[in-house]
Amino acid sequence: MARKPVKAKAKPARGALENKLIAAMFALAEEGQWSELTLDAIARKAKVKSAAIPPRLRDRGDVVLIWAEKLAAGFQAQGHGDSAPLQDRVFDGVMEVLEAMAPARAGLAAITASVMRQPVQAVELLMPLSHLGRAAARRAGLDAASLTGQAAGLGLALLIARLMPVFAEDEPGLGKTMALLDRNLSTALSLLSLVPRVFG
To answer: Is 76 part of a structural domain of the chain?
Structure first.
C-alpha cells in the first residue's frame, strides 16, 4: 500500500506572526525586562522559532516599529470637515491615536519608565513615534505630502513623546493626558504656522 505524502505544516501568516511577537514584547516589557530585552527572548515568549522571524526584524526596536506601523495604518484623513478649527482637529487626531495605543498602555508604561532611566534607549522609538505623529496629522486632515503636513507629522511625534509619561500612567478617561495636550497644543500649532512663512 502506497504511503500518503506527508503534508508540510503551513507557515503562519506574516501578520499573525508579527502580532504574536508584538504581544510577547509588550508582555515582557510589563515584567520589567525592557532594558535587557532581546529579539530571541521575544521569540521564545511568543513561541516563534528564530528561523521564522522575518529578516526585517533585527531587534526589539524593529518590533516596536511594526506595532507603530500597524497602528498608524488604520488612520486615514477623515472625520473632520475643513471648516473645523485646526486646533480641534489636531487635538482629536492626537487623542484618537493615543486611544488606539491604550491596549498596549501597560507595556508602554514600562518602556517609558526604562527610557526615562536610560535616555539613550529613546533612539529606538524615533521611527515608531514618527509613524504615530503622521497618523495623527492625517487624522487631523493635514496633507502628509505637503511641507506643512510633514512638519506636522514630526511635531506631533514629538508632542506624543512629551505626552507618553503622563499617558502611560493616566486613568482610563485620560483626563491628565488631555489637559497636558491642551496646554502644549497652542505652542505646537504656533510653530507649525511658521513653516509656510519660512519655506513657502
So the answer is: yes
Can you say how many angstroms the Cα of residue 80 is from the centroid of all Cα atoms in its chain? 22
pTM of the model: 0.84
Count how many domains the chain has.
Answer: 1
- Domain-embedded: residue 66: yes
Type of residue found at 110: A
pLDDT digits 0-9 by tens, 102-154: 999 999 999 999 999 999 899 999 999 999 999 999 998 887 777 777 888 88
Q: Where are the alpha helices (DSSP H) in 31-174?
A: 39-46, 60-73, 86-101, 105-117, 126-139, 147-169
- Inside any domain, residue 5: no
What's the sign of the alpha-carbon dihedral 143, 144, 150, 153? positive
Give the pLDDT band of residue 14 (cuts 50, 70, 90).
confident
- Spell out the long-range contacts of 77-80 with Cβ–Cβ below 8 A and sequence spacing 24 or more: 77/138, 77/139, 77/140, 77/141, 77/142, 77/143, 78/139, 78/141, 79/139, 80/140, 80/141
Q: What's the CA angle centered on 20, arms 15 and 22, to 5 degrees?
A: 90
CA distance 20 to 157: 26
C-alpha cell at 54: 522575518
